[in-house]
Amino acid sequence: MNILFLLSLFLFPIFYLLIIRRRRLLLKRLPPGSLGIPVIGQSLGFLWAMRANTAEKWFAERAKRYGPISKMSLFGKPTVFIHGQAANKLVFSSDGSNMSNHQTESMKRILGDRSLVELSGEEHMRVRKALASFLKADSLKIYVGKMDEEIRLHLLMHWQGKQKVTVLPLMKTLTFNIICSLLFGVERGARRDSLIQYFQHIMAGVWSFPVNLPFTRFNRSLKASAEIQRILKQLISEKRIELENGASSHQDLITCLLSIRGEDDQELMSEDEIVQNVMLIMIGGYDTSSVLITFIIQILANDPNIHAAVLTEQEEIKKSKPSGELLKWEDLAKMKYTWRVAMEILRTIPPTFGGFRKALEDIEFEGYIIPKGWQIFWVTSMTHLDDTIFPEPSKFDPARFESPESIPPYCYIPFGGGARICPGYEFAKMETLATIHYLVTQFTWQLCCKDNGYQRHPLPEPNQGLPIEIIPKEVV
């Protein structure tokens, strides 16, 4: 005992000195910048810039001052902001060994810690594979007709007979109904109405301060999240019974996930994982697609040449089909120019502003160290608006995407990149193209206001929600 005690007395100062030395070396290699005021850091400035739609400029000025990497504090945690092609590659090519998915505390507490954006490594691969079994192109083909019916019914209920509509809220209604139909198998009625009300409260608090006080956005979001989880768990119980009684496993996303079995013939995903990942896809399929479709409608009103090219493409598809026939997967594959317009919208106004990761170990980047445990934050538009990658980046030009392979890897990232590309990409593409097809072939429109500005809440939203005057094609 005496020898061990003496040895510990000898070794402790050495270990202590090594720790101190490592800390000093780490501090010397930290990125430039300031962590700001404790807890608050740069969070208020960031949120203010998001609300004022100056966040791109806010980060661009920071990048100009500090370069491709700098330290800051966001939402109470030390953060390293990185940008550029190399930064995107670092984030999206990671195998999960050196960094993990990571969201703001508010997002994590609202959605939970078992969603795809929180999982890493083998767990991330397992859940991603399960979601992809429903969301990949080959699986989605059988759902085109069901989506088509939702779009037709929406236009009949909300567009036909109207002289003026506000696009964004209607597109949110449409995309949510598509989600309820294809992902949940929930028909129109009280349950759908409850879901959309709760979901709107969730979205309002996703990027808020995680202070759970009464009457705050975060408090309302937490309560809404609890209600949606209750409804989804009830749905899961109902779907299990339906499957036991011989129902098809291809009815919707929930039945598909319940049907996937592991090696031990147990469900591959837990109930919490199904609930939280269904909620995650709700966010992606609801807000992202509705925002994209809304901005496409805006550009079609502002640019006659683009409108004419999209209309020509869609009219040719319409004429090639018997009257009243539903769209098929093959029809969507022909909408190449329309999707190039959508891709240019996603470049200039990416729905997702940026994202977070968490360093699982010290990471070296651009000669600096990102310390273990720190947040990593990147901004999508930093490469999208880089004139060395996209010449004349402020110019709207769908021709940029005639040869997507000419765009350097990890520079165009509206859906992520590499192995981390969003699994809902094909779903978003499908509902966007199908919706635009019916809109341009059934209506003409013009903007009620010439203000092309938008704000972020946190997704971009055209001012006033994009009110337009519409004329059915039959009247023209």
UniProtKB/TrEMBL annotation:
Keywords: Heme, Iron, Membrane, Metal-binding, Monooxygenase, Oxidoreductase, Transmembrane, Transmembrane helix. GO terms for molecular function: heme binding; iron ion binding; oxidoreductase activity, acting on paired donors, with incorporation or reduction of molecular oxygen, reduced flavin or flavoprotein as one donor, and incorporation of one atom of oxygen. The gene is LOC105174850. PROSITE patterns: CYTOCHROME_P450. Belongs to the cytochrome P450 family. Its cofactor is heme. It comes from Sesamum indicum (Oriental sesame). GO terms for cellular component: membrane. It comes from the Eukaryota. It is found in: Membrane. It is a single-pass membrane protein. Pfam families: p450. The keyword Ribonucleoprotein does not apply. GO terms for biological process: sterol metabolic process. This is Taxadiene 5-alpha hydroxylase-like. Heme binds at residue 422.
